[in-house]
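The protein record quoted for completeness.
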Amino acid sequence: MKRHFHRAITIAFITFLLGSGIDYLTNLESTLGLDTLFQLRGVRPPPPEVVVVAMDETSETRLCMGQDLTRWRSFHAKLIQELHRQGAALVIFDLQFIAPHPDNDPAFAAAMQAAGNVLVTDCVQKLLRGVEDFYGRDECSESNQEPFVQKEGIQKQPLSDQLIVFRLIKSPLAQSALDHAPFYLTNDAENPTVREGWTFLNSLAEVPTLSVVTWLYYLQRSNALQGITQPNVLFSSWLTEQRRQCASDLYETKNSPAKSGLENRIGQLTCLGDSRYLDFYGPPQTLRMESYSNVYEGKVVDLKGKVVFVGKANRKFSPGKTDYFQTPFTDTHSGKMAGVEIMATQFANLLEGRFIESPFPPSLLLVMFGLLIGLLLAQFAGLSGIAATLMVSGVYVGLAVWSFNRSGLCLPIAVPLLIQLPVSWFISLLWSRRDLLNERKRILAFVRRVFPQWMPLPSSPGQWYPEKGVAQLTSERDVFGLCLATDIEGYTTVAAQHTPHEMWELLNAYYQVLGYPVSSHNGIIADVTGDAMMAVWINLPVSSQRLAACLAALEMELAVERFNEKSNIGRLPTRIGLHEGDMTLGSLDAGEGSHYRAIGDTVNTASRIQGVNKFLDTQILATATIAASLGNVIYRPVGIFRLVGRDEPLELIEIVGMEADASVSKHAIYKQFARGLSAFQEGRWEDAAADFQMSLDSHGYDGPTRFYLDLAVAYKKNEPLEWDGIVAFGQK
């Protein structure tokens, strides 16, 4: 358990550092992660109090405006009068009335004063890299594009590339409005997508933005500020003063039980941060949007109590570059969003008291996710661990989408899924590979220590032929011999339930039990790899080799059975396969070492034969040729099979036991099985099924009988097209 926790901590630490570093360099979470959450959530209903009056293409045509925004000035007075007549709560112009318009300004100012609920936008200019580069939503006006920072005594001198200067330009009409404030959005290649909205502009002496000012006026006019101290000055000035007090630590930023919830919200908005992530309601025109000309002509009649934002917004055609911005919902179909709609979105978020926020520090969430994934991968190895982490990651994504949809809480998903999860898998696979190599090293060390008579085989070819010196041997030699292959049934499941050290102790005892019958019957251990052992018999008469190998296999079966009964760590059921034929004894060079091995089809076939045991539910299988010299060893034919990777079929027998130990009932089972097998190989499925069923009913369970009964029933229903009596296996 301690080792698992150590690995989990390591995975969490590495993935956190890597994920945080990539996110810091690429803003992966605030771009891809946040945008994905918006796309998964989709559109949500905006507050009904918010209406955008769009100076759109239809209005341009009806009112004969064209692209010149100053020409709209002559219609604003009547628009305000119409909105005032209908009882609109507030009217906000997202337009910058910088250049004077003597013909229309008096009527416009009078309409604003009469309505008493109009707010206008101040212009913000941002100067970068000298006098050439102005960044503002409309650059205020051409007359304002003059250098506003000069070196002393030098005229028209370009500024330093690093110098960034802000300038606030108020409209001459601002004094006629209820209040005024800036609303600044970046519109350059470095910030292609708007995700945040400014609440205060610290670079402009802590000036609040227009959406915040509008929110406070709406609260005042809807009587939500009753019981809360209200200023005698404009809200824009009051908010600036409150912000400066926060900067001087004169204002309490924490929630106070003595204050109302709304009062605490105002305090937090004023003192905590200068921007908020916007909770967009959907693509452009998700907010209620009415055409300027329709409102102007009195065709829209349900604007009582609404907060109306007036500004430029195309509704039919692709918007131009000025004052249109990408949002998380922007695609080729939806297009960009107008600045006035972004302002209205920020006001709607303030109205709902809902922005995109993280419930915990993102770094803490990344550490917790990495730790959870690390614990799962440390507890469950291989594919089971990957499957467990995928399931947990799916639950986490579901929780992230649910919390985002319900309350705008943003949990990181891009860094956990795209960086932490695959990196954790990679680290876990490296650890698994290291554990496997260490386990093999321990097994080899054990074999060298406990069975020194085995080890000359892989290292010294002279031990294969003790009557000859090493100098007489070539690097390889072809011989005829018999190969015995073993494999532990369900080894992967057993290994997954124990630590490597526990498996070492288990295999340590297991191979001592398994190796003794081989050496006592003149066999040689050719290879030990994990859960498999290979033994060979060579340089003996063929009959002696066959008998010795079968006796060794039977003793191994009994020894493993006694081992499993006494083991308190785990059981290791063992399958055995025997095959004889030509082999090559050769030295394999691996790096700086050289290992002597038995190589050839005989070795591979022996391994394939032992694998047939799991289908027949037997323990010892051999090719039929081995039965020629078995003496008092009992065996029974179990059929002809075409093994994986071999075209030539093999007739197999089951090595059952010694003649002296066999009972009469066993002979009856084998006799009944032989009749059924004969009928099966002749294609008489019904007779074969009857014989096999009778054997099971009379003598109880028998693995080969059960196997052939199921196969006969299946073939009776769906007979093979060409039957030659050979059973083919499609897998190992």
